[in-house]
Amino acid sequence: MSNSHPKINLLDFSHEALKDYFVKHGEKPFRATQVIKWLHQCCVDDIAQMTNLSQALRASLQQHAEIRAPEVIMEQQSTDGTCKWLLRLADGNAIEMVFIPEDDRGTLCVSSQAGCALDCTFCSTARQGFNRNLSVAEMIGQLWIAKRTLQKDPKGTRIVSNVVMMGMGEPLLNFDNLVSALRLMLDDHAYGLSRRRVTVSTSGVLPALDRLADTLDVSLAVSLHAPDDELRDKLVPLNRKYPIRELLKTCQRFLDKKETLRKHITWEYVMLEGINDSDKQARQLAKLLRGIPSKINLIPFNPFPDTSYKRSSNNRIHRFRDILLESGYTVVIRKTRGDDIDAACGQLAGKVNDRSRREIHFARIEKQQ
Ligand code: SAH
Fold first, then answer.
1. Any catalytic annotation for residue 42?
2. From the candidates 27, 43, 83, 96, which is the catalytic residue?
3. Which CB contacts under 8 angstroms, 24+ apart, belong to 98-105?
C-alpha cells in the first residue's frame, strides 16, 4: 500500500468495494468481512480494536485508512423519547438526523443531502437551498452514530430497527452513494436490517426510481401531497418534470418486478389547511390510486418560521382519512413526534436557514460547550 495519498475512510466502503480493496492490496477477501463487522456491528472507531486482524495488517490499515463519521455537535432529547442530532461534516455543512422510538421498533430518519434542490413549498429544508450530496460515509455514518449512542445508553433497550431516508435531501438524486449505503444497511455482516424496514422516500425522480427497482429491494414511500397535477406542480415543483400519470406508471413497474418482496407503495400526503384537504380532494385521491396496492400516510403539516401554510385541523384530517378508508385503503395518520425539539418532518433544517446563519449557530454552540 503506497503512502502518498490522503487516508481513505473505511465508512465509505460497501462490503464489495472493501473486498476489492483488500484483494487489490494482496489480502484475502474475507478480511473485508471482518472489517465490515468491526465497523458496522461493533461500531468501533479505532482500527487497533480490530483484534482478529494480524498486527501487520492493522498497522498498515492505520497508515492508510481511518474511520471518520460526521461530528456530533448537538444532541437533543424530546420529552417523548425522540432524539435529534445535529451533525457537522468535514466541510462545515450541517445535517440532522432523528431517532424515533416506538413500542415495537426504533426508526432512524436519515439525511441524504446537505440541503435540497427540489424546493417543495411546504418544506423547511428547501429554504436553505442545495449544498451537496452526502458521501456513503456521511450517510451510513448517521446509522453508525445512532447505533453507537444507543449501545452506550445504560438503560438502553432502544435499537434502530428501521431506517427511513426521509431526512434532508432527495435520496434518488444521490443515487450511487445511496445504493452503497442501503447495501450496508441490508448486509447481514453490517446492520442486517430487513428489506421491509428500510424505506426510500422520494418526490418522484422517475428515471432513478426505475434504476432503484432494478438494483435493490427496499420499501418505497412517495411524496404525493396532491391528487392532481395543477396543485402538485405548485407544492412539489419536480412534478412539472415528472407528472402524476408517469409517476403512477413508474410505481406500478416498481411493484411488478418479479423478485421483489415489495407489496405496496406508501404515499405520503402532508395535510395543509384549505390547500389539499377537502372531501373532494380525498375522493380524487382515492380514485387516482385505484388499482395500485397502496398505504396512505397522512402527515399533519409541521409549521416552521415564515411559512404561510397551516396544519389541517384534527377533524379535517380524520374526515379525509375516513373517505379514504371507505374506499378501501389502509390509512395512517402520522403522529407528530419531537415537536418540542423541531425534530418533526420537514423541520430538519431547524433554525438554520443558510450557510452564514448556520455558522453563527455553530459558533454559539461552541461557546456554550
Ligand atoms: N425528498 C424526499 C425525502 C425527504 S422529505 C421526499 O420528498 O420524499 C420526507 C417527507 O417529509 C416527505 O414526504 C416530505 O414531503 C415531508 N415534509 C416535508 N416538509 C414537511 C412539513 N413541513 N410538514 C410535514 N411533512 C413534511
1. no
2. 96
3. 98/167, 98/338, 98/343, 98/348, 99/146, 99/150, 99/158, 99/160, 100/337, 100/338, 101/158, 105/161, 105/162, 105/197
